[in-house]
Structures are given as C-alpha cells and as structure tokens.
C-alpha cells in the first residue's frame, strides 16, 4: 500500500532504517536487509575515511589556494605583519627624530628657514597580552585551533618554552569575544592581537 | 558542519575579505568526506585532489556569477548541493579520462553488466546473510553506480528523499521512483544469489 510519500510501507521503512532512524513495526526481512546494508556501507565508509591521509589534506589546502589564485578566484595573500613591526616602526621614528637636527646641520643646505616644530605622530606600540599556563604550547595550540575554527587567521610561533599567537581579526564571529574573555584577552584597536603564552 | 553554518560560509565567499578563510573552513570539513567518497569509487590520490579542486573552482565561479547578478546564494540543502558539485566534477573527470567504467543506465534490463552467476564452486547458499548482501551490493554497485551512490548517501548523510533529489539532480517524484527501483534491483540481485 502506497503512503503519502508515494512509497509502500516496506519501502518507507527500509529507507528510514537505512538512514539511521528507528522503525518499530518494520517487517523482519525489511529490517534485516536494511540494517545489514547500512552496516556494509558504513564499514566501507569508515575504511575509506581511515585511508584519507591527514598530510594529503594539509598539502591539498595549499594546492587548492594556489589553484584558486591561479584561476583568479582568490586575491593574493597580503604579507603578514610581524608583531615586532610596530616596535621597529617606533624605533625608526625615534632614530629619525634624534638624528633630525644632525642631518639638518651637517647635510642639508641652510637656505630655508627652519620649519616650525610639529608634533610627531608615533604609532602606538601594543605590547603582547600575556597568558600564563603550565603548558604554553598546548594552551596556544588549543586557543589557535578554536580561533581558526571561527575562520580567523592565526599565526603561531613557539620559542623557548613560550608561544606567541598573532591573530588578525577580520571578523568577530559568534563566540569569539567570549572565547577571548575566558583568557582575559582584550581586542586591540588595530585588530592585530598578539598573545604570548608563558610558562607558569 | 551544519547546513546553517555552511550556508553562512557560502555567503561569506562573496566577500573578498572573508573568502580565503571561508574556503579553508569548507575545505577542512569537506575534503576528508570527498576523499572518502572518491576512494570508494576507486579514484587515485592524484585524481582525487584534482576533482576536489575542480569542485571548489566550480563553487567559487558559481558564487561570483551570483554576485555579479547581485543575487545571494540561498540553497536549501547546502551540504548536499556541495556534494552534488563534487559528484558532477567526478563525472566530468571520468568522461575526460575515458575510464573503462560501466556507465549508469536507467534501464534495469540493460545487458551491459557482469554476469550475476556466482563463480563455479561457490555455493551462495552457504554465504551468510551479510556476505551475500555484500556480494549483491558489489554487483549492484558495478551495474547501477548511481543507485549505489544514492544508497551510500542515504546511509552516510542520513538524508531524506527531498534532499537526495538535490544530490541526484532529480525532482522529488523522480527521486522517489528511483529509490524504489534501486531497492527492487538490489532485492532481485540478492535473491538470485541466495536462491
């Protein structure tokens, strides 16, 4: 007898059991064949999944990005700014300010009247935010993975027992702010968050 | 990954600033499944990667086309839709490579299939229920690849008829008839082996 779906009861039961649903009043033959077939398919699928090498997926990621760029479907990646860049910028500016009078005095012709002194805009350097952990590498890895899962780019560096994460905040997906709060981390104005995980 | 999460990532693909991260999130979730699916079809590692890349290229081209027309991506079953893109890429790849594969036929009486008679000396009756079904499924898969793909998709993804229709590219009514035919074909094969 055909039901609402247009399938007979046996066909409907078979389909439901195959898709993993519980059917109480299915005929024995229907149940047996559906359950056995489901088991065969799931076992084969499990073996196939086990055969997928993690390394292949990792390499496949890079190759995919390369191909998408080649096809013009992805913009070239912007160079990542090191967390030391603001420090280097501040140092360069400081050097320029200190050497300014010397350069003017000895190297530049003194034809022009000295310009009135202007306030120098120095980019504010944001120090890394620190988390203390018994196992910095594991904590950094855990935090990095959670953030990556939210689609945010994270660069991880491990040095001398501490780990540094540079997080480029392009988006604030659901749960991101709460996750940072758990670690007592605030989002900086420039949206480049540097977190250092240090051994307790 | 849930359908709603994938749906939001598909929308992010239209935003150049979010495209890279969204592509990678989708890839990380679907690549192992796609690989597994293609392994079951006997596709080599190198070819699998090409097919998966083709699927992502098609996906992004589709997104860009929609964006060009100022239309938003709005798919009812995005996971299955993505799987169907990969399946189409697999079919194109198969055609390109001119592989010696048995082509799917809608005609159940087609005579293009291997013999259903078990090899001499093999007593089908001695086979256990599961083993005979497994054998029947192997023959069924080589004879009706699209049917076996559909059954695998039902089992692995737990989809219903409507969503299966998206995977097969068929209407609801045609999908219903197709599933009914698939079951009949499998039962016939199984009975032949156990009789």
| Uncertain spans of chain A | 120-124
What number is the mean pLDDT of chain B?
80
Intertermini distance of chain A: 70 Å
Q: What coarse outline of chain B follows from CA principal-axis ratios? A: elongated
Helical fraction of chain B equals over 70%
Give structural notes.
The complex is a heterodimer of chains A (200) and B (195). By secondary structure, chain A is of the alpha+beta class. Chain A has six helices and four strands, in the order H-H-H-H-E-H-E-E-H-E. Chain A has helices at 9-18, 28-51, 54-70, 85-106, 136-149, 176-182, and strands at residues 129-133, 153-159, 162-168, 192-199. Chain A has a four-stranded mixed beta sheet, with helices on one face. In chain A, strand 2 and strand 3 (162-168) form a beta hairpin. In chain A, helix 1 packs parallel to helix 2. The longest helix of chain A is centred in the first third of the chain and has 24 residues, at 28-51. Chain A is elongated and about 100 Å long. The model of chain A is unreliable at 120-124 (pLDDT under 50). With 195 residues, chain B is an all-alpha fold. Helices cover 70% and strands 0% of the residues of chain B. Chain B is built from eight helices and no strands. The termini of chain B are far apart. Chains A and B meet through helix 1, helix 2 and helix 3 of A and helix 2, helix 3, helix 5, helix 6 and helix 8 of B.
Notable traits:
heterodimer; A: 200 residues; alpha+beta; four-stranded mixed beta sheet; 4 strands; 14% strand; elongated; B: 195 residues; mainly alpha; 0% strand
Outline the fold blueprint:
The complex is a heterodimer of chains A (200) and B (195).
Chain A: H1 9-18, H2 28-51, H3 54-70, H4 85-106, E1 129-133, H5 136-149, E2 153-159, E3 162-168, H6 176-182, E4 192-199
Parallel strand pairs in A: 1-4
Antiparallel strand pairs in A: 2-3, 3-4
Helix pairs in contact in A: 1-2
Chain B: H1 3-12, H2 16-40, H3 45-68, H4 78-96, H5 129-143, H6 145-157, H7 161-168, H8 172-194
Helix pairs in contact in B: 1-2, 2-3, 3-4, 4-7, 5-6, 5-8, 7-8
